[in-house]
């Protein structure tokens, strides 16, 4: 897929991949051999009918391809951009054993974009109303998917979102150059057109509790899809210095509040630092580093990660793009202290690491090298070492079981310990991928449908 030139894109927030042309999409789709046993579908958490939609693309029937995609995927334009297809559907592509696998994600993106640009967005035929009301907490990928599937089954669905804009991590966490916000807006508008109501600035646990939604507002069931938005810090000296941010705060300021346009077109400030260190090796760390690189006043951006690049959990594509854009990787390096003067960060003390035996994660454990300490001069540090669950719903919902990490305990359908309450996505399994959250939303929708219809 064609891309922006690295030197040019490092100075803007426009989308990096430029997309397929129709001819390119058809040529790629023609490579699919239409297996009798399509393993690619088994690798998809939302069971997209991959061979069928690709078949239509190969024939140039893009409208039919879009309809086939949206039978099981409420957010195809999103998935085509941010899902790790290389670890899922494309990883088990039959021809991938000998040649490059079919670019399923890029074809999905093309089809969704074509449908939106052509104005030929088809709406499903909805069944008669069941008379059942379902509340969905959180307008992220899990909540949006669950709500869309339930609406297509005839239920009245209302999403309650704490922020002022729906989308969850899709709008506050993923940068514009990876997922343009107009794409998310279009996907949300589609759900509204099939009847999903969305109430923003509504914090369940404060505005209303789950008990109040069910007993006073007469919701027949509730789905919790609040994600994992509580940032973890490192617990090292100096973390309270001005200039030390969580990745959540930094990305929210830039993505949701358009901080990259500060001060001319946006009121939300972001760190105006020449030297920025991002601590971590996952996709969130790469998002933060590549975002910081694009701020006009930034001269140097470091990724500081305590293992080697082999162990980095970020997508290979994101690491590659970061390298192209001039991000410097300080691997086998661990921060030990933040340094500052007059309350402001001006440096970070680090120590070099070596890799020992594998730990509980299966990766080799970092071991400090004595006498290897050094100081890195930075005016901003962004901590991207993981996230946990916000405890608000747990605290305000008696009888809702959770584990020691604060994640809600649920079975494979999302059913929790509370009658009529389901949960799915990061709030259950911890920080993971968009597509896994969507898969959880789909499973919960099936279970909730059966439950509300069985209620007297």
Describe the protein's topology.
Blueprint: H1 6-9, H2 22-29, H3 39-42, H4 50-58, H5 62-69, H6 76-82, H7 104-118, E1 133-137, H8 141-151, E2 156-160, H9 169-172, H10 181-193, E3 197-199, H11 210-215, E4 221-224, E5 230-231, E6 244-246, H12 247-256, E7 275-279, H13 283-294, E8 300-304, H14 316-324, E9 328-330, E10 333-341, E11 344-358, E12 364-368, E13 374-376, E14 380-383, E15 387-388, H15 392-396, E16 421-423, H16 426-429, H17 434-454
Parallel strand pairs: 1-2, 1-4, 2-3, 4-16, 6-14, 7-8, 7-14, 8-9
Antiparallel strand pairs: 5-15, 10-11, 11-12, 11-13
Helix pairs in contact: 2-4, 4-5, 4-7, 5-7, 6-7, 8-17, 12-13, 13-14
How is this structure best described in words?
This protein is of the alpha/beta class. It contains 17 helices and 16 strands. The strands form 4 sheets. Strands 3-2-1-4-16 form a 5-stranded parallel beta sheet. Strands 6-14-7-8-9 form a 5-stranded parallel beta sheet. It is globular, with a radius of gyration of 23 Å.
Write a compact overview of the structure shown:
With 456 residues, this protein is of the alpha/beta class.
Cα separation of the termini = 53 Å
Main β-sheet: number of strands, strand sense, barrel status?
A: 5 strands, parallel
Mean of residue pLDDT? 94
Principal-axes geometry comes out as: globular
Report the β-strand fraction as a percent range: 15-25%
Strand order of the largest sheet: 3-2-1-4-16
Number of strands: 16
């Amino acid at each position: 897929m064609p891309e922006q030139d690295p030197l040019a894109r490092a100075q803007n927030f426009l989308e990096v991949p430029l997309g397929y042309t129709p001819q390119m999409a058809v040529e790629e789709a023609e490579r699919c051999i239409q297996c009798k046993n399509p393993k690619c579908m088994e690798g998809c958490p939302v069971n997209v009918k991959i061979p069928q939609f690709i078949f239509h693309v190969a024939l140039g029937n893009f409208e039919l391809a879009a309809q086939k995609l949206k039978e099981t995927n409420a957010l195809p334009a999103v998935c085509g951009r941010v899902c790790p297809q290389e670890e899922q559907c494309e990883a088990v592509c039959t021809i991938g054993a000998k040649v490059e696998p079919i670019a399923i994600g890029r074809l999905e993106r093309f089809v969704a974009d074509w449908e939106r640009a052509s104005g030929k967005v088809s709406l499903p035929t909805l069944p008669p109303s069941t008379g059942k009301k379902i509340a969905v907490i959180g307008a992220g990928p899990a909540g949006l998917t669950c709500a869309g599937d339930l609406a297509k089954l005839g239920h009245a669905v209302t999403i309650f979102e704490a922020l002022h804009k729906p989308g969850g991590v899709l709008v506050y966490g993923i940068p514009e150059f990876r997922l343009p916000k107009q794409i998310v807006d279009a996907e949300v508008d589609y759900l509204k057109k099939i009847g999903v109501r969305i109430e923003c600035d509504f914090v369940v646990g404060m505005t209303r509790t789950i008990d109040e939604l069910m007993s006073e507002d007469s919701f027949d069931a509730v789905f919790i899809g609040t994600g994992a938005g509580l940032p973890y810090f490192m617990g090292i000296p100096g973390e309270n210095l001005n200039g030390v941010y969580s990745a959540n705060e930094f990305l929210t300021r830039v993505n949701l509040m358009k901080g990259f346009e500060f001060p001319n077109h946006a009121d939300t400030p972001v760190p105006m630092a020449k030297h920025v260190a991002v601590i971590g090796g996952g996709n969130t760390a790469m998002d933060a580093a590549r975002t910081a690189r694009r701020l006009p006043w930034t001269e140097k951006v470091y990724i500081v990660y305590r293992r080697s690049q082999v162990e980095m959990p970020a997508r290979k594509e994101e690491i590659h793009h970061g390298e192209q854009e001039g991000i410097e990787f300080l691997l086998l390096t661990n921060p030990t202290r933040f340094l500052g003067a007059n309350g402001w960060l001006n440096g970070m003390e680090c120590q070099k690491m070596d890799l020992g035996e594998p730990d509980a994660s299966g990766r080799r454990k970092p071991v400090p090298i004595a006498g290897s300490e050094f100081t890195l001069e930075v005016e901003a540090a962004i901590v991207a070492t993981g996230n946990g669950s916000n405890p608000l719903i747990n605290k305000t919902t008696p009888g809702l079981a959770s584990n020691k990490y604060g994640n809600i305990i649920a079975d494979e359908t999302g059913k929790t310990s509370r009658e009529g309450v389901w949960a799915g996505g990061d709030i259950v399994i911890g920080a993971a991928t968009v597509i896994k959250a969507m898969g959880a939303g789909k499973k919960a929708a099936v279970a909730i449908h059966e439950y509300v219809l069985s209620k007297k």
